[in-house]
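task queued by scheduler; priority normal; single chain, no ligands, no partner chains; default sampling; output format set to structure tokens
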Amino acid sequence: MPAIPIYQVDAFAESVFAGNPAAVCPLDAWLDDATLQRVAAENNLSETAFFVARDDGAYDLRWFTPTVEVPLCGHATLASGHVVLNHLDPDRDAVTFHSQSGPLAVRRDGTRLSLDFPAYPPARVEDEGLLERVAGALGARPTSLMRHEMLIAVYDDEATVAGLRPDIAAVAAADADSIAATAPGDAVDFVSRFFAPHYGIPEDPVTGALHTRLVPYWAARLGKDDLTARQISARGGALWCRLAGERVRLAGHAADYMTGTIRL
């Protein structure tokens, strides 16, 4: 009976029961895609990461939601880096993962881990009809709308974003695979929430991929490259962010919740 190690890690969290839980499964060799998807569905977390070691010391990395494979996932990459640097090879200070989104580095940053991701600056959407549909889906009219694949609704204050009660069916029917909401933060530079029913995730607790869009936007708006952020989902999570040219650095903590073995 094939056995696969599994680690469940709360990413962007200083302790368990916060941040975004991810499953991480180191593999000796790739399983077929259907099996990877079934394992992710069985785990029933927003993402399950699978990686395979390369001869050069790096790893090939893939991410699956309960329903689909995704091209980029921040919190499961942070969790994967945590597993490599704290369980599999604790003498290392950094690890590189090769993915559909190119090489992604995870390195120690004091008590945190730092991700090096591509930056995806969103563009303003000038479509009043779409803005009205997003307002109806989220339950409050945004002051502006941005897009880079996902839609990003911009609000004036944290309280409005915290108070959103989205119609998830309407979010799924909008002209995008996911919708985010963001605003200036009360205690941090900006806050956000993220809704992705097309990926089987009504609301994601903390979303690294979203911040590859938000960091360029808020860096330009606030006139600074170093930013603090918090995703204000029910679990919540803190991120320390930096815009570095065409890259985004996202730092956060990770906490072990569970280790075990999957038997296929």
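post-processing summary
- The chain has a mean pLDDT of 96.
- The longest strand covers residues 254-263.
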